[in-house]
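EI: anyone free to look at a 98-residue chain?
SC: sure, send it
EI:
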Amino acid sequence: MRMKIDWKHFIASRIVGEEMKDIKFYSEVRNAFAKFMAGDWGITCEGDKALNDDALITGDRILASYPTSKGKIWINADFVYNPSDPRPVVIMFPEERN
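SC: here you go
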C-alpha cells in the first residue's frame, strides 16, 4: 500500500525563490516539481531512485535532482507525513544544504 502524500505543502529556498523571477527558471522548477509529483526522480542514480520509490511506502526521505539553466536543483521531501505537523517539500540548490 502506498502512503498518502499531501503535495500541497511545498516551499522554495530563498535563493531559488529569488531566481524564479526569471521566467525560464520558473518554468524549469515547475516542470521539475511536476516530475517529482509523478515519481520521476530526475537525474538521481538508479540506487537513489529505488530508495525514493521505497520511501513512498515506508515514509522515508525522498531526494530528487533536476538540471536547470541555473544549475542543479534538489527537491527534498522529509516524511512521514503527519497532518497535524506537515513537513514541506523543499526546492533548493545543493549548495544551500546545511
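EI: The mean pLDDT is 86.
SC: 👍
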